[in-house]
Each structure stands twice: as C-alpha cells, then as structure tokens.
C-alpha cells in the first residue's frame, strides 16, 4: 500500500468508503489492514484513524471484532439508502454503477410564515427569511426523490445555482466553513402531491415515503430543514442497532 497525502477526518472517512466500495481496502475475508498499516497508508495519526473507524462503524459500513480487527459489513442491496450516513445522498448512492442526478432545481426567498412546513421544534419568528430550494432527483436516470428544503438566510446568504445540482452541504462546508453538528430525522408516510406525483408518474394521493430532516450546526443552531419524498416502489432505507 503506497502512502497518500495527509487527510482530515471527514475526507479520510469519504476516502475509506470509496476504497471499500471499490474493493481496494479489505482482503478476501473483508478484513481491513491493521491500524498501523492504515495510519501509514493514509498518513494520519492514530487518533484520526480511530475517529474515522468509529464513524464508519456508526454508519454501518464496518464492524469491529474485539481482538481480531475491523471488517466490512455484508453488502446491502444496491438501492438501499443508509439513513445513518453523514456524507449526503449524493456520496451515499455513488457506488460503482450508481448515479444520482438533480434534473430540476429552483430557489426563492420566503419568510417562515410562507413556508410549507416547519422544523419539529419551531422557534423561528414569522418574519425570518429562508432560502427555499426545490429539487427533483433521479437514480440511474429513473425518478427517485422530490425534495423541498429551507435554509436560514441569516446563516447562508446565497446558494449558487450550480451547487443546487450537486451537493449543497458540500458547498457549505467547503466554501462557507460551516460545520454540520447533527441531523434529526423523522420517517413517515403521507399522500403524494405535486410535483412528486407527476415526476414519479403516480396518481395524486398515492403513498409516498417521507424523510424529514432538521439540520443543526456544531453550535446547536438550526441551519436547515427539509422534506424528501421517495417513490415508494424504489426506496429502501437502512438502519442498524449496536448492542453493547
């Protein structure tokens, strides 16, 4: 294994996920190299590596067998979305042969009073300004999800159009030095409305799987809240539970 340039923890996690998915990191039994070999390969400290391994464990990518080492978890079905990932839908679904694209996106400035929905524990004043984003996204060129998100304009003054067609959160973290602290998710089902019905080619009122996200900064301040509607015929969501 040839050494790489030093990586920060977030980049290290992404790099390890990519190499695990490409089949480059583990042996034929799914076992990762020793900590010392991984530290040398990625040019990182033991602390950084262990933080990355812990995140990969929390995301369900690997598991650690005490006294034996770290192993890749058995591969899930290719269209299953891990709700516990912290890398975003674009990166999560970007496995070999999988492509997620935004085919339509729009944005406008609205007030809290004009928003179609609000975060679960809403403490926002009615006049607070929000950036509303609407996106339609495909998976391998097939309709996959309809998304509506609201971002606090006091935190994010603007969102470039090109970022709406890529990963919005990557733009924040790379260009605005914004650090995501945690995301609260609520899963539900509800009748489908427009534009999802036309996009999914389903009747208005058909069921849709809904994931509501409230995203907070590392300071605990609300950054954004969103509602993602999935085509129920295609969406599969994955979570796992550790036992201690």
UniProtKB/TrEMBL annotation:
One of its GO terms (molecular function) is DNA binding. The keyword DNA-binding applies. Residues 6-75 form the HTH gntR-type domain. GO terms for biological process: negative regulation of DNA-templated transcription. PROSITE patterns: HTH_GNTR. CDD domains: WHTH_GntR. This is GntR family transcriptional regulator. The lineage of its organism: Bacteria, Bacillati, Bacillota, Bacilli, Lactobacillales.
């Amino acid at each position: 294994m040839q050494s790489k340039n030093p990586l920060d923890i977030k980049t290290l996690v992404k790099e390890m996920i990519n190499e695990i998915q490409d089949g480059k990191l583990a042996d034929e039994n799914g076992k990762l190299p020793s900590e010392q070999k991984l530290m040398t390969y990625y040019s990182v400290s033991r602390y950084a590596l262990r933080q990355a391994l812990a995140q990969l464990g929390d995301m369900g990518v690997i598991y650690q067998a005490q006294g034996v080492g770290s192993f890749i978890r058995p591969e899930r079905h290719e269209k299953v979305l891990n709700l516990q990932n912290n890398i975003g839908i674009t990166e999560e679904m970007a496995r070999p042969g999988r492509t997620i694209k935004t085919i339509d996106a729009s944005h406008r400035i609205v007030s809290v009073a004009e928003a179609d929905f609000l975060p679960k524990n809403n403490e926002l004043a009615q006049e607070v300004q929000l950036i509303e984003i609407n996106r339609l996204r495909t998976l391998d060129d097939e309709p996959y999800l309809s998304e509506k998100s609201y971002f606090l304009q006091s935190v994010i003054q603007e969102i470039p159009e090109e970022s709406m067609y890529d990963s919005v959160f990557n733009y924040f973290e790379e260009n605005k030095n914004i650090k995501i602290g945690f995301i609260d998710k609520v899963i539900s089902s509800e009748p489908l409305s427009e534009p999802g019905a036309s996009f999914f080619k389903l009747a208005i009122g058909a069921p849709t799987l809904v994931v509501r996200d409230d995203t907070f900064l590392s300071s605990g301040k609300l950054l954004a809240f969103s509602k993602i509607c999935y085509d129920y015929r295609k969406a599969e969501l994955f979570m796992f539970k550790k036992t201690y």
